[in-house]
Structure prediction request, 703 residues.
Amino acid sequence: MARCGCTGDTATTIVITEDSECIGHSGNGTLTSPLSAFPIIDASTDNLVECLEGGLFVSNRGVWTPQDFGRTGTADDAPLIQAALSAARDAGGGTVYVPAGVYQVASLPLRIYARTRLTLAPGAILRRAGTGTMLLNGDSNQVMPGYTGHGDILIEGGQWDANASQYPTSAMCMSFGHATNLVIRDTTIKDVAGYHGIEVNAIKTCVISNVQGRGYKDPGDRPFSEFIQPDLAKGSAYFGGFGPYDDTPILDLLITGCGTGPSGTPGTIAWPRGIGSHSASPNRTHRDIRINSCRFEGCSQWAIGAYTWESVVISDIQMRSCGGGVWVRTLNSATASHRTPAGGSSPTITGSQPLAGIVIDNITMSGGGAYGAAVELEGEDTGFIQDVAVGRVVTRGTAGNGIRMVSVEDYRLHSAIAHTTGASAISTLGTRRGHIDDCHVNDTAGAGITVDSRSTAAATATDVTVSRCSVTGTAANGIHVWSGVDVVIDDCELYALTGYGVQVSTNTDRVTVRDTRTRATTLTPINFTSTVTNAVRSGNSSDAPGATTTATAANTAAETVVASWTIPAGDALPGTAYRFAAHGQASTTATPTLTIRVRLGGVGGTVVAAFAAVTTGSAIANRGWEVNGVLHAIAPGSSGTWSGGAQLWHHLASTTGATAQEVTDGAITRDSTADQALVVTAQWSAAATANTTQALAASLIRI
Prediction:
């Protein structure tokens, strides 16, 4: 039914078709005018065509309005709307069309049935004028298990005003259970108290498109309510409309183009959570869920809470000033009711359960973050989140972590940017078989990126790689690894940090740090504590040699450094070896002696190799010498132990070569947590201007 143009209209006339859609036609609007579009309904027993004062009044079989059953605009229009819905039910399905206007609905709930299309015209507002849920699919006494209830329903258009300021007790706006094929689109739901804007419970194949949730009122015990809640048929406390309570979950849900925020109505706030679930049963995950192109503003908790969801794609989400962003959680084993099936039946499980197949992509979060991270995945050791791809996350000005992952396995995080976070920007605990790649962190009150396996199932099998990431402006370490096995830090850029560039600690085993560039760190660029074992570091900008110099000893009898290499603080690991070489030449007058030594710690440091004094030939000129050696770190630390040796080749005494070999007697002690200079020194027995030796070249390789 619809009102369109009438006889005498000079503008384009609107005629309703059998599909209940109005089409514009040129003409003067009379029914006898030639019309260019068809079909147009005929006046008959089942179809009504009248020209009334307000326009052409057209009705065809299968379309009902509240006005068919009485005059609207009363204190309670719900009986008229219900009559139209019931007429569609009795006819086996049809369309209920609600023209523009404000409809007070006090007799609740309105009940919609299978194969019904409920269309609110632009400007149509259904305003709650009593307590209770506004719309429910079916009757309270029905018994339709699984997905066999009233489905094939489409709801569209207009506005649903739950009027929380006048009716502040908890109620749903729309609630649907045990059904297949549900579409809700192009509508606004305003000012709901306590429960949810839309609850879909035990629903298969549902699309919620371009639905906006504006305004929420907490009656005092609901700081966690979601605007859209996918739920399972667990009990009457979870879904009060009807049973059976058979733990049927959600299957195949698409939410697109939706959003939440404040309505501006005094006494209301924005929704605490935008979309999500907060109840569960064992082995009853919600599956095949897609959420995309949505925006959330002012949520005090999660914008999206994917609790016990699997096979999930969440993409193109924008969040502003929300307490937390996108949260994925396995079954919480600390909540006993969630470990127990519907009705408290058995079997009750003892831990959590895994979830698999999570894609989170193209997420932005500005501000907020006091409740949780922009993206937070939280499993348990008894229930990992598995097979996860997270990418293109941008977070700025948040109070907590940018990204947080707990008990996640077989994952990849890539192309994330976390700017100005109140805690570690990218934080992981107990994750395994993962790859964090191409991420950037700037300005965080914690560490840049953490890989923490302490006291978790991942401690003995971590296998996590952090590669091609950049971190700057942290209040703690750039990258911090605690415990775990087989962790790789590769090709990262770490600079302007308070703390270490890379810190590895707490019994981490088989860690590799390679090709990583560090600068302007307040502590050692790369640091391994004494409990780290089987570590490898290579190709890093802070690796030895930190500096290489060559010099000349001339006209002096003092021991003088002629070649020097810096072993940076923290560079040495247990078993690390440094292979060094220095090539030089010497010239003399008369036949002085020349003593060459290798020391760790500079000219006053501990001797690694001291060669016997060589009596030179008389008045030699530019005779060659070469020192080659190896220095080993035995047990690094502030009282670190080392051992080494070297060989000396020279032409100092004659034109034929001579060789000398020296090794450390036992171990020597030098602090590996501080920079150490490994040097070659030369000492003449007599000072003369002609007695001169110099190192021409020097090299050191960390092996």
About this structure: Residues 7 and 392 are 59 Å apart (CA to CA). The two ends are 85 Å apart (CA to CA).
